Q: What sequence folds into this?
């Protein structure tokens, strides 16, 4: 990802924007975004087990009157005139792959000075799927409004309070050393502390932060898990772990920390209530 600022700075800068100016993206910005999206079938650590993903920039003024009434953001998004809509082929790690790629797009948009907001549930999936001509072999897991944002309204501030948008779990609830009953300290994280902090700051559905990372004792191997959830919420943790892996991976590249992603379920005692996803092993 090419950016004008260090990745950790962009991650810290990114925040969900729900109120927009009502002004469509100008021609130059649309061209810049379309170029980004057209070339964004990038690899993720999940690519080997995932189908192809694609993304399109959709303009609300192109919708007819009835379609505009059916966008389905339920008042959570105001004034947005453009959306990025993505689809991914059905596969084992489709949502994880999609989450990684969509987050790289959102970080790039943040670097451009644009506002975004992950929407995984509050939008009309059939409408947006039709707009990008998605096939029966594709899913549309999420979209984001994108544009020139305004200062937060009282309503938006209330929504952010309700969904705990500014809250993040502490380290001892997310990162562990060897086993789940041993939290990983900042000191034990060493040079990986910045990578893990970027994971901690990542967005997630309802800010539930469903990822858990266990470090092998005395070696820089990190195993990524998600918590088990009810069927109503079960489609979101795969997206969220894609975001978490994206933050870890991009920050590792930024800081020149070299390693590889593997699928090697280590069968760590006490993880029976978690779902293993992927591991990072540092190059020796």
A:
């Amino acid at each position: 990802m090419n950016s004008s600022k260090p990745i950790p700075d962009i991650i810290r800068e990114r925040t969900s924007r729900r109120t927009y100016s009502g002004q469509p993206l100008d021609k130059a910005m649309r061209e810049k975004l379309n170029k980004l999206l057209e070339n964004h079938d990038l690899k993720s650590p999940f690519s080997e087990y995932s189908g192809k993903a694609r993304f399109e920039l959709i303009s609300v003024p192109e919708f007819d009157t009835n379609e505009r009434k059916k966008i389905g953001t339920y008042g959570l998004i105001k004034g947005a005139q453009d959306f990025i809509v993505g689809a991914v082929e059905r596969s084992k790690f489709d949502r994880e792959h999609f989450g990684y790629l969509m987050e790289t797009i959102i970080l790039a948009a943040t670097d451009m000075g644009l506002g975004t907001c992950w929407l995984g549930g509050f939008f009309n999936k059939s409408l947006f799927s039709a707009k990008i001509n998605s096939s029966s072999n594709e899913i549309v897991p999420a979209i984001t409004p994108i544009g020139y944002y305004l200062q937060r309204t009282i309503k938006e501030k209330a929504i952010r309070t309700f969904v705990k948008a500014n809250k993040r779990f502490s380290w001892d609830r997310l990162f562990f050393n060897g086993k789940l009953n041993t939290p990983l300290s900042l000191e034990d994280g060493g040079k990986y502390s910045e990578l893990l902090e970027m994971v901690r700051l990542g967005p997630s559905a309802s800010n539930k932060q469903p990822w858990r990372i266990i470090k092998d004792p005395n070696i820089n191997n990190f195993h990524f898990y998600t918590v088990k959830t009810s069927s109503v919420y079960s489609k979101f943790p795969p997206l969220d772990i894609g975001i978490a892996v994206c933050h870890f991976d991009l920050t590792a590249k930024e800081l020149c920390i070299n390693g590889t992603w593997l699928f090697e379920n280590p069968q760590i005692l006490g993880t029976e209530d978690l779902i293993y996803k992927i591991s990072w092993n540092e190059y020796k």
